[in-house]
Amino acid sequence: AGPDLKVISTMSVGFDHLALEEIKKRGIRVGYTPDVLTDATAERSVALLLAACRRLPEALEQVKNAGQARGMCATGDGSAGMAAGPSSLSLLGQAVARRLKPFGVKKFLYTGSRPRPESDAEFEAEFVPLTRLAEESDFVVVTCALTPATQGMCNKDFFSKMKKTSVFINTSRGAVVNQEDLYNALAQGQIAVAGLDVTTPEPLPTDHPLLSLKNCVILPHIGSATYATRSTMAVLAANNLLAGLRGEPMPHELLL
Amino acid sequence: RPTIDRELLESLPNLKVVGNSGVGVDHLDLKMISNFGVKVTNTPRAVADPTADIGMALMLASARRLLEGCQIAVSPDTKYFAVDWLGVEVTRATLGIIGMGSIGYKVAQRARAFDMRILYHNRNRRRKEEEEAVGAHYCEKMEDLLQQSDFVMLVVNLTPETHKLIGKKELGLMKPTATLINISRGAVVDQDALVEALQNKVIRAAALDVTYPEPLPRDHPLLKLNNVIITPHIGTATVQALRMMAEEAIANILAVLNGQPIPSEVL
Fold first, then answer.
1. Is B249 in the A-facing interface, judged by CB distances under 8 Å?
2. By residue range, what is the domain housing residue A181?
3. Which of A188, B51, B74, B106 has the smallest count of CB within 10 Å of its CB?
4. pTM of the predicted model, to two decimals?
């Protein structure tokens, strides 16, 4: 863009796609859309978790093709009595935990940069190191932001510590996961099934090995894709932009 | 599993009990079995959680277009993800539960965590404390529930009273933006009426774990519609549920044979 660029208004809560140092240097303001999409994305995370562990895409295939609905044991693992580990108890992590609780999840574990006692009481969630989260969870749900600290966080080491029966859900950013390590973990049965709403890149190239796995459910980054939420995000993004152009306070400015 | 008919019962004079694995007994001629002095038991406890889970899974999968999304994500024809590809939100929508027994109530508990507004219709009204615990409003008339709901979930058992409970009239009362989810029995819905309603966009979509018959004939119109998702009766298809159903069935059978109180006898 030209030297007169004053405002960048992103229709997202993630800002890993912005070169913040450069933007700050040029005195450009940035608006974004946090909070308004928390419900839609939390809903999507739980939907994906259920679809993955109850093997819905395979079930659908069975109904359309095989015609032998009964007698084929499509056994997924039910969620009652599991330890879920939202990887960070941010707003999104909390919204996911809130929705999972009545499914009978026995224990919540979480990790992150620091414990959040103000938020974890609701779920009696225990703050643990990443390794313990991997070892003890039946469901791992990754909801953190993509930062230098979280890049490639879910790698060979992480997957090797997870249970063989566990379910891995990534709804953060593709780059938080080492995709080659994830492929190996799934192919070798180190973990049972994965559900991904985010990958690197999006979409994955057509010959990518993850696409060939029956135990990997992939969605096209639909976290906030509902009429209601996208409308709200669009209005907010427009208002952020207009405020920026007028030199006024934005409804949601990203502080650089 | 074997068909429990007159011929089978006559050939087993010492039969004391038919222990069903699962809660539905619509496939059993209860009167005839009773006439032979044979007891019938089922497994209501084991099925409740996984079935409620599947109800939620289907509702979410339909609303957020998950199965379509999966196909787009893996299709070799996909070059980019369209930003205007959207689903509808479950959070804060209105869920109408028809049949608020143990499974229906567990669905309500789960739906509440999504801030859903919960309406229910049942033969009997639940206690006030039970309603308040999940924020459920009783609709004495099913029509009221149908007209107000964004998602209608069928969680009744199949009896002569609930056979074709949802027909052309009921589908017509639903909102054109509404979704029908069936986790009860296929025959609770008039399938031909459902096909017509889906074809003419009388309702937005349907998500079915049960049909009549199972499986559907391969040329059935329900298999061709793009606004319906069907799963092959997997409500209790989990490792834990299968084990728990077997344990519950065996406990029932042993109770009958030992002359002890029967945990879940079907009368």
1. no
2. 39-218
3. A188
4. 0.92
